[in-house]
Amino acid sequence: MSSENTISSTQEGSPQSVLHRYLKAGSALENTRAQLEALEQTEPVETYHRQMELLGRRLQNDPRVFRDMFIADGTEAVAWEFRQEELGAEFTHVLWELLLRDDDASKVLMRFIWDVPLKLKRKFIRALDRHLSQRYPVFLGLSDNWPAENAIPPYIRDPQLRARDFELVNQGYLGYMNVGYSAREVELLVWLEALRDKQCEEKPCEVGLAEPGRPEPKGGCPVKIHIPQMLSLLGTGRFRQAMELIQSCNPLPNVTGRVCPQELQCQGVCTHQKRPIEIGQLEWYLPQRDKLFAGGGEDSLPPSDPWLQAVKPPIAVVGSGPAGLINAYLLAAEGFPVTVFEAFHALGGVLRYGIPEFRLPNELINDVVDKITLLGGRFVTNFVVGKTATLEDLKNAGFWKIFVGTGAGLPRFMNVPGEHLLNVMSANEFLTRVNLMQGAREGYETPLPEIRGKRVMVIGGGNTAMDAARTALRLGGDVTIVYRRTESEMPARVEELRHAQEEGIVLKVLRAPCEFIGDDKTHFVRQAMLDVMALGDPDASGRRSPAATGEKEPMAVDLVIMALGNSPNPIIKDAEPDLHTTRWGTVELGRGSQQTSLDGVYSGGDASRGGSTAINAAGDGQAAAREILGDMNLSAGDIRSRVSLAGSYSKLGAAPKTILEKIELAEGIVEFIVHAPHIARAARAGQFVRVLPWANGELIPLTLADWDAEKGTLCLVVQGLGSSSMAINRMQVGDAFAGIAGPLGRPSVLHAYGTGETVVFPAGGVGLPPVYPIMREHLRAGNHVTLIAGFRNDSLLFWTRGDERIGKLQQRYPGLLDVIYTSNDGSYGVKGFVTGPLEELLKANRQGSGREIAEVVTIGPPLMMRAVCDLTRTYGVKTVASLNSIMVDATGMCGACMVPVNIDGRLVRKHACIDGPEIDGHLIDWDKFLPRFNQFSAQELASKRRHGFA
Asked: What separation, in Å, do the N-terminal and C-terminal C-alpha atoms of the chain show?
């Protein structure tokens, strides 16, 4: 009854009755007041007032307390529902709506369901299946054999759609947002996956399973992510804490969660054997969720710059692959000044050049680089340790410790007949052209083989083979993977193989190419002969060894991509004689350590393991960081000195490669003087550099015509023949190249010769610049030199006057340098080719007159070098062909510079940057080598037309 009605009722009746009731009520009120005053003096009432006062203060300080009281009551109501035989439809809908609210109450409900016994969890999943599957199709059938054999899978794009682009294939749980799910709904899908966890005490997913006779446990996490703890945090709705936990162990979850073989590691030993928990998907969901909800920003301010603080000594990390990045991150996070030295112009190592973006978007690699940069880490690209500087050079530059994570980037081949044919290439080269150099994108200059509508064979059964095959498919190829064992022996991730087959790639097993056959006119591969194989006894890896049955079958092909694994690049090993390596060429490590045979130098990843996985590499980088952290004993003054020295060295290495001077030498030939201090200090005669003219350009090998170590400059001579070289020659003083790496290749090998002998240099056209520093070294060594420099005509002459380079050499070394000039049309010097004067010298030698030719070093157009080698072979004169300025297609790709060489009747391959550039010209199989220079002639012509140069 309202107060208004009460008052009106008291107004009813006679005045006497109203007065009587008033006096009676007043008497009752006085009695009640007296009773209240008496009761307030009692201990129970005083206690009540104190509790109410305390509750008031709590509510004032923390209003959530009042709400929690109601939540507790609500939880009890939920518990009552869970005690029923099944959860009803109305309750299930209400419960789900409460979970979607993403507030404190929803978190309490998540924790409640996480804590209930498994049979009640199953009841909850059955309710989702029965009552919400129309709204969420992913719930349909989920309760069948849940949790051991059923789960909500990540979102995978349709094969027919994804096979035509390079967008991400496995889009994880966040991919469900593309079909209308909200971010919170996706969060609950992840929570449902975490609910499957058993919280095993043995933690096999984290530490692995011990097996008798095995030194290492089976499975587990190489970077020791605390997986059970992560799942517990997810299961109780603490997503941010789960993210922080992962990042404390692994700064690359967005990367490793996508590319590491979880089926062999954490998920391989999951107690849910039939359907392991999607640990990898949960791992990379967390950083993506962090970017989605918080913009990926850090909660705290960036730390102070360790280079300015100078309280810890500087660290050099060689290579920016997974091992190097995690090592750099962990050390930078501990306050060490870190510089990462990377040989390519872009960071990420194999993560960038080897893995396509439909598996690993480049932006995720950039995220890791940004994190390291935020911690004060520095990056120096186009820096080839072992060439630009040795490990000892880095130590002398102030770096206290060095981590070598250079990977295994030297591709393997089969060494079968016909391997020299055009369009037979390594997966390294193919993937580098597409992934690193973006050759498939409009506006990028790196040429790709013609693939659309072509028959593509990919040889191999690993992840690289899958990546190459699926990349070729997206470029329009008709792709077949050829593998010498059966599907069950393939080392590729099960998911990658399944995705490849879903996309339409054909798998041809128990087959191995034994020969490639090409077109006699074009020299492009046209057919492969396949050995039909059968499996025999298991090999050392436990897989059954394939053996040829004697039966063969042909297969028509237009492009062959070999994905047969990689060997460690020997550049660092060759530069460090005291660095111990295994018989496989990997860096040898101490027992139970990442320490190498060199003091203060650590290694990990493929450089020490050989071909392995990104997560194993990351684990090695992490282990090396721990070792480095526990080994510091330097004075404050020494640390400051080292930091200053290493900081200056890093800045100098990262400085732009700016053009300081430009000289027009002749028609279409330009000399550039470029600022590149570290390369200038390391340069030796006979070497070359790899140039990236601009960000979307192609990699071009250019000869080192000269250098000045004191001024820190290089001299490059460029003849405008292709579209890139023509565009380079339009660059002006003040412009900077996007990158210059080197010096590459082995320096010239010099011998001391007698006074009656001479070293002859037949140089054609722009072969003169690379000849110049080599013959200068011979002159310095006291050897007599005969230069035969050939030009097409007098409009292409350069360095011929007395005040130019060749004339100055003659003045500096009187009597030691004879110069003969030739021109094709006779407009300058002797008419004809350089082989004319050379043959006269050879004939004179045979007749016993003139200086004896000790050796011939030829550099220039390929046909000229071949003619020189054919000529000298008949006279038995040692001849070296220097290939430093003409690496086949001028893209500088690893594997592109294959030089077929005959040794003891067997055809083998050599590479300019590893074995050369100077190679015995009499061993080169010129018939097989020369056609390689035309491999991308059609693409080059198209590029010229596109740029208006044709």
From this structure: 99
